[in-house]
């Protein structure tokens, strides 16, 4: 069971700001989904090794060589706000802090 | 015969034999798009840069794809062409580079017709989660095309593109292919580069083709399969010429029918149609046996833990700083993050981020994420053992045919549409959905063939054989009359 208090806590962790309505709906729906996935407890997995990737993956390294990068101007075209080839963001703290 | 109804392989042959001109093909397709797109709404953005007057088959003479048109799901990056993931978050995003698959298609002489609609960030099974509009199934105007690659499936089914690329995290190529009466292949995890694919669940996501026949699937696999130094999960190996496996021959194939799948709640007509197809394969010389596997419901449960956990991490990048939407008038940086995410994400995306964050949060990791990763081992081992003895495992692609737009409102009910496709992603194996019949409403039914890791050619040969044996007359839904 996930209550509204927990939903707010999770939303905070996920940097989501939910409306009252969403908080209510999600409490119910997430509880239902979590109930469903708890089906997995029926399977005995005590001695089972977890699988993260289904094929053997290894670190792929490349030589540390300087190559051409993406065009800065083109990349910054998608930036909501930019200044001197940097991303510009709002103040980290409120005016009165 | 109208050119837009032709397959990629047909058109390629006609161009080679100089029986058709490239601009005739594009003219036919653009006529079709003009007539049916207002109803189907398969595209988010069409490539406006294709100039019919400039098209010359001579320019593509030496290429594999001969200048032919290909539609791309809107979660694969296309330089200078918007890539929105059907999300408000990326509504105006123009990638500064191409996904590797897009480069491969271009290098092979393919032309991108446009970007197809999808469930937002590929999260959904009906394309209703698109932030812009739902796509309509060409086979029934009140029916969903499936999802999340619903736009790709609908575009191919309606004759707006001979082939399309989709992505498949839990069934997002195969389920819409089944709903729209087309063929869809999810390749082995690691067979196709995902560089430039907007990430949803990185241990499951895979790019693959949708087409109107198996020949075109083989053709497209020849173009997109292969290693990529920009995707470290891509496997360095040599792939065969897949078109060499377009053989009507299943003699000696051993096929397993999973008891646990067929015991589930499946439409009678779907079950009947799939079992008929299996019988036909048996008649053609395949050996069919019932087998036991871990129930698909466990794969589905594990999927909704693994996929949402990975999504919650992957989607953390949408913070309004570097690209995409930024909420205006935020007082400080933190408010800007949360406001942006509140405004930019739709309901299903938020739900999955919430679930993923929950299962990864302190105190729950072992109970959920670790448990799901262990169940993944069980499911993978199941398939590995079966494939020591069997060439293919066969099931319906979906328990039902296309449902109605607006019919499924409960998230769990929607998730159940992927029950037979999800185990394949959990195990990382390849699978193909092939049309095998129609229900009494005239809606297509699909059969799913699953194979061992990196044995796409086995699937292609069996799927091709089935297509020839069943010889379904898949005509075109008469959409033009309805506009």
Summary of the model, kept short:
Helices cover 34% and strands 4% of the residues of chain A. With 97 residues, chain A is mainly alpha-helical.
Q: What is the CATH class of the domain at 4-42 in chain A?
A: Mainly Alpha
Q: Which sequence of strands runs across the widest sheet of chain B?
A: 1-3-2-4-6-5-10-11-9-7-8
Q: What's the CATH class label of chain B? A: Alpha Beta
Secondary structural class of chain A: mainly alpha
Spatial gap, N to C terminus of chain B:
22 Å
CA distance, first residue to last residue of chain A: 38 Å
Low-confidence stretches of chain A: none
CATH topology of chain B: Amidase signature (AS) enzymes
Say what oligomer this is. heterodimer
Largest β sheet strand count, sense and barrel closure of chain B: 11 strands, mixed
The number of helical elements of chain A comes to 3
Give a structural overview.
The complex is a heterodimer of chains A (97) and B (483). Chain A is 34% helix and 4% strand. Chain A has 97 residues and is mainly alpha-helical. Chain A has a domain at 4-42: Histone, subunit A. A two-stranded antiparallel ribbon of chain A has the order 1-2. In chain A, helix 1 (4-13) crosses helix 2. Chain A is flat and about 55 Å long. The mean pLDDT of chain A is 91. Chain B is an alpha/beta fold and 483 residues long. Chain B has a single domain, classed as Amidase signature (AS) domain (Amidase signature (AS) enzymes, Alpha-Beta Complex). Chain B starts with 7 loop residues before the first helix and ends in a 13-residue tail after the last helix. The model of chain B has no long low-confidence stretch (mean pLDDT 95). Chains A and B meet through helix 1 and helix 2 of A and helix 9, helix 10, helix 11 and helix 12 of B.
